[in-house]
Design goal:
The complex is a heterodimer of chains A (about 55) and B (about 375). Chain A contains two helices and no strands. Chain A is an all-alpha fold. With about 375 residues, chain B is mostly helical. Classes of the chains: A mainly alpha (about 55), B mainly alpha (about 375). The interface between A and B is large, with 41 and 49 residues.
C-alpha cells in the first residue's frame, strides 16, 4: 500500500519513517555494541599487515 | 551607410549576452559573489562554496555556453542527475573517515536518528504548502544535511526540484556554523555545555575492517533503495582500514575526491540560473530547508538531553546537534560551541560518533521514505 498524497499521508509517512529509523539505528547500535566480541578471535597487527602487502 | 553600421552593431549586440541581461541575473550574481565572499572571508566551507558561487555567477551571465547542452558545466550537472557523482562522493568520504568513534560509543548512535526530526517537520510543512507527497519527501530530506543523499533521494522522488534541493542542502551545510550554534545555546545551559565526555575505548583493526563489511550487508539487506551510496561509503572505508590498498584509498580520499568536488560544485552552481531559480517555489523550498536544519539540530539536542534522564554518565547535549549527517561540519560545530565554554573540552572525537551515525540515519530515513512511497 502506498502512502496517500495528502497531509494525513505526510503525517503518517513521517511517524512511520521516524519510528522505524530509530528502531533500525538502535539495531545498528546493538550490533556495534557486540563488536568488541570480535577481538576474541584474535588480534591483527598493523605492521605485519603493511609488511605483507609490500 | 550610418544606418547600416548601426544595424550591424545592433545585430552583434543581440548575439551577446548583454541584450538578455535582466535584474534577476544581477541578484543571482550577487548571491554567487556572496557565497565566494563567505568562503574567503569567513572560511565557511570554501571547498563547496567557491565552486558553487563561481558557477552561479557564470550561469547568470546570459550567453554562457558552459551551462548549455554540450557545455562542461552542463555535463557536470548530468553527472549529478544520473547519480554518478553522489556515490563517488560517498566513496571518497568513506576513504577519508575513521568510523572508530561510532564503533567505540554505540550508545551515541541513536542521536543519528533523533537529529532527523527536521526532515519530517519540513515534509509535513511542504505538503501543507501544496507540494505533492513525493516533492515533500524530496524537500524534507534536505534536513538530513547530507548533500549526496539529498541529491539521490530528490532524483528518485522529484527530479524537477533537484536544483533547488541541491542548492538548499549544500548551502545550508556550508552555513551550519551560522545556523546551529544559536539553537544549541538556546536549548542547553552553560553547565550542560561544560560536560566532559569519558575517554573512548580503543577500536581494534579487526573491528575497523569488520565494520564496512557488516554495514554493507545490513544496508543492502534492509535498505536497497539507498544501498548504492552506503555501499560505496563502506568500500572507500574498507580500502582505508584494510591497510593493504594504500594507493587506492589515497586516490579515493585525495585526487578522486577533489575531482568529484569540482564536478559537484560547478554542477550545482550551474543550476542556479535566475529564470529557474528566482521563483516563489524556490523561496518556499529554501525556507523549508532552513526549518528542517533548525528542527534537526533542536531535536538532536533535545534527544541528547532526554537520554541524560536515563544515563548515569551524562553526555554533553551539544553532541545531539552532531547527529545531523553533514560530516564533519556538524561535529566541528558541536565541538566549537562546547569549547567556547571550556577550551580544554575536546568534544570533536566524541561528536564524530553521532555525526557518522547521522549518515546512516539519513540513509535509513531516505530508504524507508522511498519504500513507503513505492519508489525503487
Amino acid at each position: 500500500m502506498i502512502v496517500p498524497d495528502s497531509v494525513y499521508g505526510a503525517v503518517l509517512l513521517s511517524i512511520i519513517d521516524f519510528t522505524l529509523s530509530i528502531i533500525m539505528i538502535t539495531g545498528i547500535g546493538v550490533v556495534l555494541a557486540l563488536f568488541p566480541l570480535l577481538n576474541r578471535l584474535g588480534k591483527l597487527d598493523d605492521e605485519k599487515i603493511r609488511k605483507a602487502s609490500h | 551607410m550610418f544606418e547600416q553600421v548601426l544595424g550591424f552593431l545592433q545585430a552583434m549586440a543581440d548575439q551577446t549576452g548583454v541584450a538578455h541581461f535582466w535584474w534577476g541575473n544581477v541578484v543571482m550574481i550577487a548571491i554567487g559573489c556572496a557565497m565566494i565572499g563567505l568562503a574567503i572571508v569567513k572560511k565557511y566551507e570554501p571547498l563547496l562554496l567557491v565552486g558553487i558561487g563561481f558557477a552561479c555567477v557564470i550561469s547568470n551571465v546570459p550567453g554562457s555556453d558552459l551551462i548549455l547542452p554540450g557545455g562542461l558545466f552542463n555535463y557536470a550537472y548530468h553527472g549529478i542527475e544520473l547519480l554518478i557523482i553522489p556515490p563517488l562522493i560517498f566513496f571518497g568520504v568513506g576513504a577519508m573517515t575513521d568510523f572508530g568513534p561510532m564503533i567505540a560509543h554505540p550508545k551515541l548512535v541513536i542521536l543519528g536518528a533523533l537529529a532527523h526530526l527536521g526532515i519530517f517537520i519540513s515534509l509535513i510543512g511542504a505538503k501543507m504548502l501544496g507540494f505533492s507527497i513525493n516533492e515533500s519527501g524530496a524537500i524534507g530530506i534536505i534536513g538530513g544535511a547530507d548533500g549526496p543523499m539529498a541529491v539521490f533521494v530528490c532524483v528518485k522522488l522529484a527530479p524537477h526540484l533537484l536544483p533547488q534541493v541541491a542548492v538548499a542542502a549544500y548551502s545550508y551545510m556550508a552555513l551550519m556554523p551560522l545556523i546551529q550554534p544559536p539553537v544549541i545555546k538556546l536549548l542547553t545551559s552553560r553547565e550542560e555545555r561544560l560536560i566532559r565526555m569519558k575517554q573512548m575505548r580503543p577500536v581494534s583493526r579487526l573491528e575497523k575492517i569488520a565494520f564496512p563489511i557488516v554495514m554493507g550487508i545490513v544496508v543492502n539487506l534492509f535498505f536497497p533503495p539507498v544501498a548504492p551510496l552506503i555501499t560505496m561509503l563502506m568500500l572507500g572505508n574498507l580500502f582505508k582500514e584494510c591497510l593493504v590498498t594504500d594507493r587506492l584509498y589515497k586516490t579515493a580520499a585525495n585526487d578522486l575526491m577533489n575531482v568529484i568536488i569540482i564536478i559537484l560544485t560547478v554542477g550545482i552552481g550551474s543550476t542556479m540560473n535566475a529564470e529557474k531559480f528566482l521563483t516563489f517555489q524556490t523561496i518556499e523550498i529554501i525556507v523549508l530547508g532552513l526549518i528542517a536544519f533548525l528542527g534537526g539540530t533542536a531535536s538532536g539536542v533535545l534527544g541528547a538531553k532526554f537520554m541524560n534522564l536515563f544515563l548515569t554518565e551524562k553526555i554533553n547535549p551539544c553532541l545531539g546537534s552532531a547527529g545531523i549527517a553533514s560530516v564533519p561540519i556538524a561535529a566541528r560545530v558541536a565541538h566549537i560551541v562546547a569549547a567556547k565554554e571550556d577550551r580544554e573540552n575536546l568534544l570533536i572525537y566524541h561528536a564524530m560518533g553521532p555525526n557518522l551515525a547521522g549518515v546512516f540515519g539519513t540513509a535509513i530515513s531516505g530508504g524507508i521514505m522511498l519504500a513507503l512511497l513505492g519508489v525503487k
